[in-house]
Every structure is written in structure tokens, then in C-alpha cells.
Amino acid sequence: MVKLNKIYTRTGDKGTTGLVDGSRVSKHALRMEAIGAVDETNSCIGLAVAALGGQALAAALTRIQNDLFDLGADIATPGDDFTPGEMTLRIVPAQTTWLEQAIDALNAPMPPLASFILPGGSEAAARVHVARATSRRAERAMVALAEAEPVNPAALAYINRLSDYLFVAARAINFAAKTDVLWVPGAGR
């Protein structure tokens, strides 16, 4: 259980931050870039949840926000043992499987895409599209980290599938409101 009584510690004043194992890294290290991008994704999803109000999709997005905290903890735990434990949070394949099942359920009632869609439509869908784009940046940051240091393969699969989920979720929001905006190639020529 996390208990924070004091928010500032002054331990990062010289440009480093602590990881789960107690080691310290530069705040611009690849690992911190990935953690930061995951945090930004989580914040963008929070904006989408606020725009959705009490709609059913908000609960799914809140579940994902919790998973993203798990993902941040996973990335903040260096090493090559990706076994989850009582005190070690790791993304597990079941979290990605849940995303895949949710994608299939959201996608089922919609017709296949015949065109690319523009990120927009309703406000809620537009916010989900921003979260999708941010999750793709988080994935790029995690892949860059994985090229330099070990990263949990289940975490990489999760962040990859998350952008797919967010795309389909935005599309589902717009489908319900009939507000998808189709790309018109060359429209500005």
C-alpha cells in the first residue's frame, strides 16, 4: 500500500530519480522517458474518462489507467526477472488478453473500415484519440529502452495493444454518436 505524507523529497534536485530497486538514474534516461510517456498516456485517458461521464466505456478506461500504473511500476523495476511478486508489479499476458477481448467486443457491431478516420468526431472520441497517439509515443519510448536494457515482453505487448484498443474505443464512441470523420485523400489540394 502506498502512503505519501510528504510530496517533495529533494532527492531529485540534482537531476536524478530513484527506481524501485533503489538505484538512481538521470531524469532523462531512456527508462524515465518511457515512464513519463506512460504517465502522459494515463493522464490523457483521465481526460477522456472525464469527457465520457458515466458511460460504460469510462469504467474500462479506468481499469486501463490502473494497468498503466502497473506498467509504470514494471518499467521502474530494472532487471531481467519479469516474474510478478507480492512486492513486484509486472504486466502479465492476461492484461493484454483483456485488451484484445475488449477490442473484439467494441469492434463487433461496427462495419469494417472503408477509409481512414480523422482523430476527432465527438469530444470524448477526440480525447481518446489523443490518448492513442500518446500511447504510441510511450510504445516508441519503451522500444528504445528495450534496445538498450531488458524490458518485460508482456509490457511491450500491452502497450502495443493499448493503442489498438484506444483506436477502436474512439471509433466506437463516434459510431454510437454517428460522428466519425472520414479522411478525404487530397482534399486540400
Describe this entry's structure for a reader:
By secondary structure, the chain is mainly alpha-helical. It has one domain (26-76, 89-109, 116-181): Up-down Bundle (Hypothetical Protein Ta1238, Chain: A). Helices cover 58% and strands 5% of the residues. It has helices at residues 30-52, 56-75, 93-107, 123-148, 153-177, and strands at residues 16-18, 24-26, 117-118, 181-182. The strands form two sheets. It has a two-stranded antiparallel ribbon with strand order 1-2. Strand 1 (16-18) and strand 2 form a beta hairpin. Helix 1 (30-52) packs antiparallel against helix 2 and helix 1 runs antiparallel to helix 4. The relative contact order is 0.16. The model has no long low-confidence stretch (mean pLDDT 93).
